[in-house]
Amino acid sequence: MTSTSQRPEDENLGIGSNLLYGLQHVLTMYGGIVAVPLIVGQAAGLSPADIGLLIAASLFVGGAATLLQTLGLPFFGCQLPLVQGVSFASVATIVAIVGANGGEGGLPVVFGAVIGAAAIGLLITPIFSKITKFFPPLVTGIVITTIGLTLMPVAARWAMGGNSSAADFGSMANIGLAAFTLTTVLLLSKVGSATISRLSILLAMVIGTLVAVAFGMADFSKVSEGPVLAFPAPLHFGMPVFEVAAIISMLIVVMVILVETSADILAVGDIIDTKVDSRRLGNGLRADMIASVVAPLFGSFTQSAFAQNVGLVAVTGVKSRYVVATGGLILVTLGLLPIMGRVIAAVPTSVLGGAGIVLFGTVAASGIRTLAKVDYRNNMNLVIVATSIGFGMIPIAMPSFYHHFPAWFETIFHSGISSAAIMAILLNLLFNHFTAGNSDQQSVFVAGTERSLRYRDIAALHDGDHFIGGKLYDAQGNEVPLQDEDDHAPRARTAGATSRDPAEATS
Prior knowledge:
NCS2, transmembrane, Xanthine permease, transport, xanthine transmembrane transporter activity
């Protein structure tokens, strides 16, 4: 490994630059880090004050985890510019556990599940590299896509007003406010300024809230109730409760988080051109898991690296880990201000719904982008994707589907993400690892999808052109020379010798 003094991430830009760029990192991920406690708090039926405490705890723990990841301790922290925060991957599973355990009373079960699953994740980090082959893009893409899809009902409910028993639930005023916020997100995303575009969701929520205030649709009267400055109270929502089924369900999420964090660590290492070996990767994963073990004690959830901040490092070219560590300090400071959490909790639910459509849809789109990397030729991957996502949608389309199953079974499979992940892992093992007995014939479900040709690949062919023995001949039987795009002179070659050959082209 290169010496510490030579590593690009060890450059210190000074207090002023660290504060400026660190604040940019915080603003980039702020909407994402507060969304999770907002979703969970509303699903649990918490008061605005308690939701504010969840938000403050998420900010505080996210900041502490960022400091651990960037500055590092022995065996913990990869010392790379990675921002940590509460993971979106766990939202659907948390909401399912909360729902299965009676709202607010389900939070201790959630905290116990996070602690138990993260502890297992911490134990397996030394061998995780050996089991990542069971979590290829096929599996992670299915899981990420399902996360986004399972959260769309939450966005729709928010857009309608959030409280189904309220007189204005589903009113044109609520949906109109959500539509205005959504439109604002899209317009800000189109603005030429990269900074405004990256902050489009956060800015749209601010603008939507101001419009709501103007029309009397926002209530900030409870913001002043409670302390302005306070340390997150440990175990405010009760002692963690450990249920095996909930832990198993959360363990699936933890495995996905480990895969995602591994990808983020490797990606940021590549972006800043620094060496990331197995020890450094392991240190980063252990930081993720120990932060996730501690987080529930303060009222937060699973922690992971934020991919959008990895993108920010690439865009700005600022490689210093001390910049991100400064961002961590800002998050810790915000976490000590519960009044900030109460302000966010007072944002009208319809505003959150408009922003949530884009936010949750982006998660699904990220999964689809991952699935686009999967090879669907001469295999059953298309069937695996179809079956797994379909299986994951069952509890979303019909929430009572598993009501007559054993309680432990319902806890696991009532979460769409758990259902999809388990099915994806099992089918991937069945068809792609235990290949004995696989048919050499295409399934009827994927027949015809194996290959296709682009028009530009055949535009130069003439009537009567044909292939024999891997060579192209015209109607008179003369061999037609084939050439690469960068060749200056044609030369005869076999069709199999180049990936540019029309017979081998795929869409």
